[in-house]
Design brief:
With about 110 residues, the chain is mostly helical. It has a domain at about 35-100. About 70% of the residues lie in helices and about 0% in strands. It has six helices and no strands. It has helices at about 5-30, 35-50, 55-60, 65-70, 80-85, 90-100.
Length: about 110
């Protein structure tokens, strides 16, 4: 429920900060201290996947929707698109995407995709 109560808003903000901090700690454990590497990895995920939560909203969380989500292959993106999306220069994006590929997180399927 939406509220304008500053006490509740402060509590929500504190909760979001805690969740974000926890996520950053997990990323650091797996990807090291390179925040841009994590940002680019997340940007690729957001640019290449449809909103899978819509499947759950429409059909509920059942075996069929889980199968559909699991079988989701995603869409293509490019270095240029990720550079524009993150405001990180192309050379850095290219280098970081190559690094994510070497870690087995990304797969290059065509030139610049």
């Amino acid at each position: 429920m939406l509220t304008l109560d500053p006490r509740i808003m402060n509590l929500v903000a504190l909760g979001m900060a805690k969740v974000t901090y926890g996520a950053l700690k997990i990323l650091r454990r797996h990807l090291g201290p390179d925040l841009e590497l994590s940002m680019i990895g997340f940007a690729v995920g957001m640019r290449t996947r449809r909103d899978l939560f819509q499947i759950v909203e429409q059909h509920g969380l059942n075996k069929d929707s889980i199968r559909e989500i699991t079988n989701e292959r995603g869409f293509y993106t490019s270095i240029n698109e990720i550079s524009r999306y993150t405001d990180i220069n192309r050379a850095t994006v290219r280098r970081k995407m190559q690094q994510l590929g070497e870690l087995g997180i990304l797969e290059k399927v065509d030139d610049d995709k």
